[in-house]
Design a protein that fits this description.
With about 220 residues, the chain is mostly helical. It is built from 11 helices and no strands. The radius of gyration is 18 Å and the shape is globular.
Amino acid sequence: MKKILFAVMAVLILVSYAPARENAQQPLKNPRAEIDRELCRLQKETMDLEARAWARRISNGEFTYGELNGNSLKWAGDPDCNRQLMQQVQKNLNTGNTAPLTEEEEARLEQTRKAKRAVLMPATRDKKLIDSLTADQCIALNGQYWSWRIGRVKDVTFKKLKQLSSGWPGSSDYNQAIIRKVQENIRKGQTEPLSTQQAYAYEACTEYDGSAYQEPKKK
């Protein structure tokens, strides 16, 4: 279940990261067309698996095909490639091809997701930076990023983000610390976008392992 919910989280990040960079005034290193082509190439490698995973979630009643299709219009990448994916999802629903992915198939799909994140977020490959991160840094960056998404971009609500947080890969304490930081920022009206430097560090934080984080005990 956590892997499924984290997939939604990944989609939210991929959908919105180009606007985030634009607000941070950080030009993309590659032309948009080049990025779209690379994302499409990666997506086609496991499109059958991704389509089956989406079809299964629809058949399980998590959302409708119409809702997913509407969201797909905002996905990063080549629009034609995304339409091909949605056509495959519809075909799977029509034929009943909604079997759960095997562990090996899930691993392959996750590898593709990581590769796509690396195209959009180069810092996810910056091992030196990732290894230097602290929980407090990533909590603060996540708090600022999602406060901006909720308060200014308005493409996700705090309620929805809180629901998704139950499936994030970090520890419960780590995830709840992020949610509290988002709530605090919104309450204080602190919804400014990330700076160029912060945006890069935030990218790296998507690879930060918060599984061992524990909330400091109050004295």
